């Protein structure tokens, strides 16, 4: 029977309703639809010659946050092992949620399982929760189901996620030391310029009178100390504004433009990010090909997932070259090196594209790791020079007044 509900006034805003209905052939159907009211939703189902068994309003919930990299890796790993054991996907998702019991990862697993039990396909269920799972994941999972190799696709996706996580962690670890060194130097200079130097100035004036002039370097440090809190405040505001802009770019889907035109051209970090991007693109392309997608589909899917405008332009050009049968030496790119299309062309002739892409992925991953190791080699001497200059200038500013006082007393 249709569940009872209070009479609702039609609204211009559509609401979501979960239903269970029966077709004229006796087949039970479950799903969701959008309508202005309960009566409108019932009318829609009846217009399709469906006998409504139950229908109820689905309350709106706050959009859950996207899963973090660690949660996503754990989710994918558990789902891969459960599907490899032969369990249905919805059963595996329920077991993941029961194992975790709480948290946004368990909620995401339960939500996808509920959509599957209502009759949605696996890709549709993941698309319903696109704010938690990337679009690439939904489409590759669907491809894995169609090709009958879902566990293999999930394990390949897990290796891809581990690559992303490892590169990000290594980059943050390398940059931690320079940042902490700068913060420590700034704190020391702030303490000295605001507490020690003013006391020395008062002591020096007691000996030399009000007209006595401090050494020029000491005057500079004292002047810097007076404005230093304001400088730190301005820098702090700049950091907050930059962080807000970066969050806005990421949420609006324009992070790729910032990465392509700001981060990649940077002299030290840029080569690391570029090698990492190419490794992830080749790995994603390998997953798509191994999942049964044809090469143009895999290129388009992987390039969309990378969210890099330059890489997407290169992918469209590469797809055009493949579709029109042009020679690969005519391919011109913004970001993809000549190695990638050449390797794709050669492996296409031998029929071993997935293995070739795995080798290229490993090559660019090693390049990223080697260039990561070069960052401390470059930044450490630079930071040492900055720290030594800052400390040396501060010590000079501290002792020059004392030297002048002792000299005046001696002579």
Most strands sheet: 3 strands, antiparallel
Poorly predicted ranges (pLDDT <50, ≥5 residues)? 1-12
By DSSP (H or I, 4+ residues per run), the number of helices equals 14
The helix/strand series, from N terminus to C terminus, equals: EEHEHHHHHHHHHHHHH
* % residues in beta strands: 5-15%
How are the strands ordered across the major sheet? 2-1-3
Radius of gyration: 31 Å
Q: Identify the overall geometry.
A: elongated
Mean pLDDT: 76
N-to-C terminal Cα separation, in Å? Answer: 109 Å
Structural class based on helices, strands and sheet pairing: mainly alpha
Structural features:
411 residues; three-stranded antiparallel beta sheet; 14 helices; 6% strand; elongated; disordered N terminus
Outline the secondary-structure elements:
Blueprint: E1 15-22, E2 28-35, H1 38-47, E3 51-58, H2 69-84, H3 89-100, H4 104-117, H5 122-128, H6 135-146, H7 150-208, H8 216-251, H9 255-263, H10 269-290, H11 295-306, H12 309-324, H13 339-350, H14 353-410
Antiparallel strand pairs: 1-2, 1-3
Helix pairs in contact: 2-3, 2-7, 3-4, 4-5, 5-6, 6-7, 7-8, 7-10, 7-14, 8-14, 10-11, 10-14, 11-12, 13-14
């Amino acid at each position: 029977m249709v569940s009872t509900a209070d009479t609702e006034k039609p609204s211009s805003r559509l609401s979501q309703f979960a239903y269970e209905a029966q077709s004229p052939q006796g087949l039970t159907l479950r799903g969701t639809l959008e309508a202005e009211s309960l009566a409108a939703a019932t009318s829609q189902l009846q217009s399709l010659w469906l006998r409504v068994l139950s229908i109820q309003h689905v309350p709106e919930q706050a959009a859950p946050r996207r899963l973090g990299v660690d949660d996503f890796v754990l989710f994918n790993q558990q789902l891969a092992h459960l599907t490899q054991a032969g369990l249905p996907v919805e059963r595996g998702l329920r077991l993941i949620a029961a194992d975790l019991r709480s948290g946004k990862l368990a909620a995401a697993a339960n939500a996808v399982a509920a959509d599957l039990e209502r009759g949605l396909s696996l890709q549709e269920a993941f698309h319903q929760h696109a704010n938690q799972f990337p679009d690439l994941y939904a489409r590759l999972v669907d491809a894995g189901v169609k090709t009958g190799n879902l566990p293999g696709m999930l394990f390949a996706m897990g290796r891809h996620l581990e690559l992303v996580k490892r590169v990000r962690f290594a980059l943050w670890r390398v940059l931690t030391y320079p940042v902490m060194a700068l913060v420590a130097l700034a704190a020391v200079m702030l303490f000295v310029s605001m507490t020690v130097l003013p006391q020395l100035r008062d002591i020096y004036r007691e000996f030399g009178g009000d007209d006595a002039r401090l050494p020029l370097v000491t005057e500079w440090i004292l002047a810097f100390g007076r404005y230093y809190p304001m400088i730190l405040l301005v820098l702090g505001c700049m950091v907050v504004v930059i962080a807000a802009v970066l969050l806005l770019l990421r949420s609006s889907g324009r992070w790729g433009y910032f990465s392509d035109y700001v981060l990649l051209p940077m002299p030290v970090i840029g080569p690391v990010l570029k090698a990492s991007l190419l490794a992830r693109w080749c790995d994603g392309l390998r997953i798509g090909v191994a999942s049964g997608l044809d090469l143009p589909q895999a290129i388009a899917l992987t390039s969309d997932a990378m969210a890099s405008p330059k890489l997407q332009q290169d992918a469209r050009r590469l797809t055009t070259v493949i579709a029109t049968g042009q020679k690969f030496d005519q391919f011109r790119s913004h970001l993809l090196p000549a190695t990638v299309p050449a390797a794709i062309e050669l492996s296409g002739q031998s029929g071993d594209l997935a293995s070739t892409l795995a080798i290229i992925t490993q090559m660019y991953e090693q390049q990223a790791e080697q260039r990561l190791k070069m960052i401390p080699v470059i930044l450490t001497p630079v930071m040492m020079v900055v720290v030594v200059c800052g400390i040396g200038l501060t010590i000079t500013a501290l002792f020059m007044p004392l030297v002048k006082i002792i000299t005046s007393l001696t002579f």
